[in-house]
Amino acid sequence: MDLSALKPLLTSLAMPPLAPLLLAALGLLLAAGKKRGGLALTALSLAVLALLSCHGAAVWLARHALPQFAPASVAQLKTGQVQAIVVLGGGLLPEAPEYGQAQPAPHTAARLRYGLWLARQSGLPVAFTGGVGWAAQGAQAASEAEVAARVAQQDFGVTLRWLEAQSRDTAGNARLLAPLLQRGGVQRIALVTDAWHMPRAVALFERAGLQVTPAPMGFVRPIEGPVLQWLPSARGLLASQQVLREWLALAVGRLLPA
Question: Looking at residue 9, what is its pLDDT?
């Protein structure tokens, strides 16, 4: 078995909500055995989980835990002599009963829409990369690239010039798409993905031999009033999880360079 297939499980174990819940359970076990500090560990773990469930905490983490990239502009694409726009997949909805076929997950749909908007503004061709992610094995039949190509044509009237449908993660996106682009004479790209995903994506595509102009979207920014953003919510927890996952991936990448 490819050990990469274990990445979703290992990541879940290291990320909220599972990691704090496991620590809280450990604290309860220690307390049941009359070990000092057990209840304190449980209380601390639950407090951390509550804090990470606040969207305000996710905003702070996004600004301070990850490198920052400014939004791209059409003028910047021209100055950088960008030759193509590359959109990274971010998951699928394998079953969308209302459509009767698979649809892009929210991150994929938002990235694709922004990439096509940049294409309209700049006149540049678009590439899309995404296969079946490690976490989606067994639940997903179509690749992200297949679905993105269909949606781009049906909903936006745009034909994607390059499609890469075999990759399972960001490293695979870069490794497999780069040769396709380079065979077409493309060396300078604008890379479209969520702002929290951009630091790792840029590093991997540059390692694959491409010159990258970041075109981030999906910034983690305040979306509620000052009081509401510091109340725990599922949306806040998801945003914190995404930022922390990327922070962890960058840290592991520094310790274990490819």
Answer: 87
Q: Omega before 17 cis (within 30°)?
A: yes
Q: What is the DSSP letter of 229?
A: G
Residue 116, pLDDT > 60, answer: yes
What are the start-end ranges of the E strands in the chain? 84-88, 92-93, 103-104, 126-129, 162-164, 188-194, 211-217
Q: How many CB atoms lie within 10 A of CB 68?
A: 12
What's the whole-model pTM score?
Answer: 0.93
Furthest-apart CA atoms within the chain: distance in Å: 68
Q: Name the token pair of 185.
A: 């004479």
Per-residue pLDDT band for 2 (boundaries 50, 70, 90) equals: low
Strand partners of residue 127: 86, 162
Instruction: State how far the Cα of 111 lies from the Cα of 122, in Å rounded to an integer.
Output: 16
